[in-house]
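ok trying again, last paste got cut off:
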Amino acid sequence: QVQLVESGGGLVQAGGSLRLSCAPSETIFGINTRAWYRQAPGKQRELVALLTKSGSTTYADSVKGRFTISRDNAKNTVYLQMNSLKPEDTAVYYCNFQGQFTRRIDIWGQGTQVTVSS
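nice, full thing came through this time. structure:
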């Protein structure tokens, strides 16, 4: 079963930067969107950034201008560059791939903790 492997989380001071990475354990065909979500304690999971196969991006209002989602086709990896981090960005971050091939694709990573100290 294909898995999404995330890395790059950690502890950082407010104003700092982190880059999250997410790669599948094997090649997946038919991916339409790659996205990052986050879930803070006691809150619902929310969309942070989304990248379509055509290159269009969508960002949560709270991260616009600070976060950038990108993709390295050669490495089959999606990234989330997070700059000017704030304590309210503290959450578990999950990557998600969706699409359609022989069946519907909806795969989640295991999550990586991002903690921003004030």
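cool. DSSP finds no helices and eleven strands in the chain. The first strand starts at residue 4 and ends at 7.
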